[in-house]
Structure formats: structure tokens, C-alpha cells
Amino acid sequence: MKIAVFSAKRYDREFLDAANAGAHTLRYLAPHLDAETASLAAGFDAVCVFVNDTLDASVLETIAAFGVKLVALRCAGFNNVDTAAAARLGIGVVRVPAYSPYAVAEHAVALILALNRKLHRAYNRVREGNFSLEGLLGFDLHGRTVGVIGTGRIGAVFAGIMCGFGCEVLCYDPTHSPLPAGAKYVTLEEIYERSDIISLHCPLTPKNHHLISAGVLAGMKDGVMIINTSRGALLDTRAVIESLKSGKVGALGLDVYEEEGDLFFEDLSDKIIPDDIFSRLLTFPNVIITGHQAFFTREALKNIAATTIGNIAEWEKTRACKNAVK
Fold it and tell me: 44 with 68: CB under 8 angstroms?
């Protein structure tokens, strides 16, 4: 098959080429797939895309007219794909449901530790010869209450790590998958009311868009720490900013952002960022933002590439795939 790989970076080429081993023709394209770049899919049987590519009905109609029959997502989430339009157009959609739950879960823990012990501030101080401890006071994680929203593979691994710290771990998920020893399921309301730290590990759906809203924030503990390594739009960013200003939210760790599509995965260091909301977040000393790097480990990239190529091969042979998006 001839496959157009959009949003391609050097590391994508490295791992996909190794997994492909010459089986398919891969053409690497730097731009995101969207309405303006959809014409680049002409002449290809499939497109391989990532989290910030846009596959709405109009884009899917364009690439279908070029003969594209498969969308291969090299990620778990598929909220950027109009799956109903894809089905109507006869385009298959496959994804990578799991690559390394440890990568994302461990990154969430890293954000907690960095925020709690003010590592980002301490690092900069020491480099400037300032060894004062004022303003760097943290707290013991042992004995704290941690809320986990979403207990799929990543959420379950995260819950297990936090149990290892000696935390009380409260979990919520509509599907009660098995939990590590020490964690228990409760209601969302109990998580909001009792948690010192809340970490989001759920997919983005129309139902949970802005799951963390102004009303929900009002019911949380004063000084709560919120971590989001899942999907940006789970948080109402404007409401979170107001809660940071009031002190209701004591710390915020983000690896995702609602409007990250024009920001993340690019070097914008010589440009002015026009997103005022994002720029406002960067002014808070108790906020750490990473650019959607939680997945970014060697093990995860190897698994993503292997599953993506495997999905394409399976679909090519049978026009079906165990990792198909329904």
C-alpha cells in the first residue's frame, strides 16, 4: 500500500521505517492533515495521522475522492475523526489502543512531583546561584488522597504508582475494570470533594467535554492539584485560570491543551504565541505545561509503530482489523 504519513517528525520516520521493513511505501509529510493539505493525499491508498490532524467530514470526503480507503491513527484517541462520515464514505479507521501505559502514567507522576516540590523553580534558582528555600515548601504524598478519573490501562497503572506512594487512591470509571490493591471505586462527586490531587485519564467524548468546569471546581478542596495527560478539552481552561487566580486550584500540570493543534510538536521559540489563554497559563508559577510528550518514550514509539504497521497489514488483507474504530 502507498501511505501518506502526515504530521511526520524525524522520530516517526525512524520507528515506522523499522517496523515497516519495506512492506509498504511510506511518504512522510510534515504538515498536519486538514482542509488545506488534504490534496497531498492524492495518489495514496491510506493516510497515517496523529492527534492534531483534522479528519472532519469535508477532509474525509476530499481524501475519499482521491481513493483513500484507510485512516491509520498512530494514537489511541480518535476524537479528531468524524467516524460516521468515514463509515458513510467506506473509509476504514484503525488506531493504537495501547502503546505504553507506563509512559503516560509515569509522566503524570513526574508532573505531580515537580509541582509539589517546585522542581522547576528550584532548578532555575540554583542555576542563578540562589539557594534559598523560601517558596519551595511541598508536602508528603504519603497519606494524601488522589482521585483518578478513568481507569483504563493508563489510569490503572497510575493508580498503582500512587498506591505505592502510600496515597489513598479513589477512582471513577463507568466501567469498573480491576484496580490495583489499595485503590477503590467511588463516585465522581466524592473524588471532587475529597481529593488533594486529581488526575485525568479518560478519553474525550461529547459527554465529558469540559468535565472539569467552573461548577465542578467550586466543589473541590481549596488548593487542589489537577493533572491532565489525557485530552485538553476535558478542562474548561478559562474556568481553571480563574480558580488558579483565586487559589482554589493550588497547582496545575498539563501535557495537553484545548487549542494545542497550532502549538504542540512545533518549534515556535522565535514567534509570538497569539493564544492569550495559553500565554496566561504560562504566567503562573504553580503551573507546569509540557507539549504532549507524556507518550514520548522509546518503548512507546516502538509499540506505536509496530501496531500501526500491523493494523495496516491486517486491514489490507481482510478489510477488517481488531483495532478498528467502530
Answer: yes
- Whether 260 sits among the annotated catalytic residues: the reply is yes
Amino acid (one-letter) located at 156: A
How many helices (DSSP H) and strands (DSSP E) are in the chain?
11, 12
Over residues 59-80, the mean pLDDT reads 96
The domains of the chain, with CATH numbers, are: 2-99+298-318 (3.40.50.720), 101-289 (3.40.50.720)
Q: What is the DSSP letter of 171?
A: E
Tell me whether strands 145-149 and 168-172 are parallel, antiparallel or unpaired.
Answer: parallel
> Residues 292, 298, 299, 319: which is the catalytic one?
292
Rounded Cα–Cα distance for residues 259 and 237 (Å)? 10
Containing H/E element for 271?
none
Would you say the C-alpha torsion 32, 96, 11, 289 has a positive or negative sign?
positive
For residues 301 and 242, what is the distance between their CA atoms, to the nearest angstrom? 36
Give the span between the Cα atoms of 53 and 225, in whole angstroms: 30
Catalytic annotation present for 142:
no
First to last CA, the chain: 22
| Catalytic residue (choose from 32, 95, 231, 258) | 231
Q: How far, in Å, CA of 265 to CA of 306, rounded?
A: 21
User: pLDDT for 299-325, tens place per residue?
Assistant: 999 999 999 999 999 999 999 999 999
- The answer to pTM > 0.85 is yes
What is the distance between the alpha carbons of residues 144 and 271, in angstroms, rounded to a whole number? 41
